Amino acid sequence: MLRTGARVAVGLCLLLASGVGRAADGGVAPASRVEEVTFRSGDVTLAGTLWLPSGVAPRAAVVLLHDEDSGARLSPEPYPAFLVQQGLAVLTYDRRGAGRSSGEGQPWVAGIDAWADDGLAAARLLRERTGVRDVGLMGFGQGAWVALHAAARAPDVGFLVLVSGGGGPLWKQQEHRLRNEARAKGLTGPEVVDLQEHLATLHDARLYAPEREAKALKTLDFQLKRAKRRRWYAVSPLSRFEELPPPRLLEVQRGVWRNVLSHDSTEDLGRVRVPVLALLGELDEVTPTQATARALSQRNARDAGSEAPRVTVKVLRGADHRLVLPADAKRPGVETLAEDVFPTLEGWLRERGPAAP
Fold it and tell me: In CATH terms, is domain 6-169+266-352 a member of 3.20.20.120?
């Protein structure tokens, strides 16, 4: 989501300069202490870092869940430091198959269900180590879908914060991302349309039906050979697996479809009965902002008149998938978080009032 280094330093400077670093009750923000932890999720051992307010009991706790391309525990900075300053305990961890965590993390083997299980195991560890009842999940990108799925399965999740994701089917997010990658590589409008037709074939659920295996093998073989002759080939999901024989290629594609891309958050949203905050970047080229905002907001319309907490959706003007603004001409190469990120998150956390342990 957000890499460490200069960008993190800029984010923390903004946090302190804006006064957001104060504790939610108006007092001095607590310092943090850090512990290395391991915990089990089924037969997988996950390694993580526990951030705790120093000298005070945390008033709530939150697990941070990874984006698609980021399995390392430190990737969500500067959010752990900010959340600890708000009086929350924070758990970050290496996704299965990454860093010091065991297991297989590839999407044709793992997927939304397994990653949600890991997030819930992390939440259980937080409750055990801190004594806090109010434990939420904060998901970045793909992790937003994981957070929703986990909360839909576990009524003891206290709240959700979704960053740059969580609404609608994941295959639509992938198509949005790959079309933008193609445009960034200088492909023409007709070439992008051709790529979209290719993706539509790969994202047709009928392709992966077991009874259509012979036809699926022919379709994938044809699509791979056709894609290799196009300028957009490097953008095709098939380019990663061009050396695989057709039966293995079908197995991998079927696993990715079943475990990740076919997942739609609509059913999960209908089951979640906790407060949800969604932060989206207006210029997100990875997640389709408007479609995601509509999908999340539909829960409010569907549950109008009920006692279900509302989904709060905030679109941050000028921000990208990382909620980062373009580099200023006066400071080339320096990026900053959108200025509304920390105040919005702080205000929402204060308003919902996480319970004391």
Answer: no
